[in-house]
Amino acid sequence: MATMRGGEPIGDEVRDIMSAWAGGRQPSVLFDFNGTLSDDEPDLLCETFRAAFEEGLGWTMTASVYLAEFVGLSDTEIVTKAVHRRGDGTAEQIARVKRLHTALYAKRAECEELVAPDTVQLVEMLAEYHIPMGIVTGAQREQVLAVLGSSPIADLIPVIVADEDVQHGKPDPTGYAMGARALRVPAREVLVFEDSVVGVGAALAAGMRCIAVAGDGPSDGLRAVTTGVIRRLTPRLLDGCFDQR
């Protein structure tokens, strides 16, 4: 078993997934965004959704409700559920609350570095190996661009499939299928990094390999849907993958 930076183990299952992916003809990567590429799940997202719901709906959402009901859903799905629960249920209110949340999130992203240093190094190393990369997310494009805009990796990930690009969020595989088409690679050549059960389900349903990023939370749910689980993204994942390139 290899080890990640900080002594965290890389299991044999993860190493096998990485090796099989790197041995493909056109290895490519698609990242989930919230909680994976952006270090914002659950704390920052819970805070910004709570603030948007307080202002737009007069509802103070608890962290337990967010964790139990909203994690992994797209922005549209989260806001729609909240509006049907506490608002008037209209499309106008859904759009208004979604705009509130996007503005609150973007403001936080402007003054916080949400892409961890190890994640930056991983993306930079993938770029050095000429690995095509993209993002598939249930967040709004504006939020993604706000985070990337304050990060050195902004120009290294040209493909973004966001909430507004698809009719159905994860676990529907449409977003990941769109990401592969945008990268111009077959789904079987794509490695996905995801942090939610629904996201892993979407990647696997699209015919891609997937490694789950569990963070510091429980990983039992993720281990039930994929054999490859890590704590966080790190350049050490690439050790030995492209020695012959």
UniProtKB/TrEMBL annotation:
InterPro entries: Beta-PGM-like, HAD-like_sf, HAD-SF_hydro_IA, HAD_2, HAD_sf, PGP-like_dom2. It comes from the Bacteria. The keyword Metal-binding applies. NCBIfam families: HAD-SF-IA-v3. PANTHER family: 6-PHOSPHOGLUCONATE PHOSPHATASE, HEXITOL PHOSPHATASE B. This is Haloacid dehalogenase. Keywords: Carbohydrate metabolism, Magnesium, Metal-binding. One of its GO terms (molecular function) is catalytic activity. Belongs to the HAD-like hydrolase superfamily. CbbY/CbbZ/Gph/YieH family. CDD domains: HAD_BPGM-like.
